[in-house]
Amino acid sequence: MSTPVETTALTKRYGPIAAVRDLNLTVRPGEVYGFLGPNGAGKTTTLRMLLGLIKPTSGRLRLLGLAPGPRHLDRVGALIEGPSFYPYLSGRDNLRVLADHAGVSRSRVPTVLATVDLTARAGDRYSVYSLGMKQRLGLAGALLKEPELLILDEPTNGLDPAGMADMRVTIRKLAADGCTVLLSSHLLAEVEQTCDRVGVINEGRLVTESSVAELRSGGTLRVRAEPVERARSHLVSQLGAGQVRADGAGSAIDLRVDSARAAEINHGLVDAGVSVSELRWHEPDLEETFLKLTGGGTDAD
Ligand SMILES: Nc1ncnc2c1ncn2[C@@H]1O[C@H](COP(=O)(O)OP(=O)(O)OP(=O)(O)O)[C@@H](O)[C@H]1O
């Protein structure tokens, strides 16, 4: 199978603003890829370029092996910037209209309604749908042509926790059925729970691309001890300066060592006349990592 999404040095400028700069992105077959970044990072601009809604200033992109052109979206479904539906038609009738437009058989409509769990409310007018139902109907619309790749811009934006959970389950179900998903989000928890891999974008640049587990790796042994200066100089002499670093507040010391060395380090500190009040393995959560990577410039929830 060809690579679902591949961009090379993809760039979009708006006058002096570089919304997206030299972006090299790879989404692998069958994965759920989270495109994560704070507001204004360039996520929507990237997705709009992928979908041919705007033209890149420079760089290349391919979806399922195809460069932008008349066929490059044939096997791609998308949900971007709120779907538009007729308010006075039912969810089912809206999907029928969409199917007719897309040249897809109306027989797909019950299937996609079931996939997004809207069958029971399919006869209700769109105008009475909750935000979560509207999002799910949008997703159903994107699924009509049985896409191999789904591109979703902030699919859980504005949803309540139950709506977010429903959307997550649906996305994982689609991935289990073999669909590749690229979704953007500024919500760390969402990406952590839904995605296999994540690309972090900040100020138009990809700052890292890795599995969620890799992103979180790099745990440290955290020490709190008194007097802290004596503890620090002892640890530096024992482990080397490269392994010892103060945490942000300066009240704790983080050691880049294996967790199995905790007891040995404790004994060494006590022998050096230091009293240890805390010694524990500290694994950074995604939020910490994200803030570090993006220089803290996020207004994510
Ligand atoms: N049509 C446009 N004209 C000028 N600047 C734009 C345009 N579209 C986007 N930008 C700018 O490009 C940058 C990236 O915007 P973009 O919408 O892609 O970010 P985003 O990561 O999707 O953020 P959000 O989560 O807020 O939607 C921002 O500085 C934005 O102001």
TrEMBL record:
Belongs to the ABC transporter superfamily. Keywords: ATP-binding, Nucleotide-binding, Transport. Residues 5-228 form the ABC transporter domain. It comes from the Bacteria. GO terms for molecular function: ATP binding; ATP hydrolysis activity. CDD domains: ABC_BcrA_bacitracin_resist. PANTHER family: ABC TRANSPORTER, ATP-BINDING PROTEIN. Gene3D superfamilies: P-loop containing nucleotide triphosphate hydrolases. InterPro entries: AAA+_ATPase, ABC_transporter-like_ATP-bd, ABC_transporter-like_CS, P-loop_NTPase. It comes from Lipingzhangella halophila. The keyword Transport applies. Coiled coil: none annotated. This is ABC-2 type transport system ATP-binding protein. Pfam families: ABC_tran.
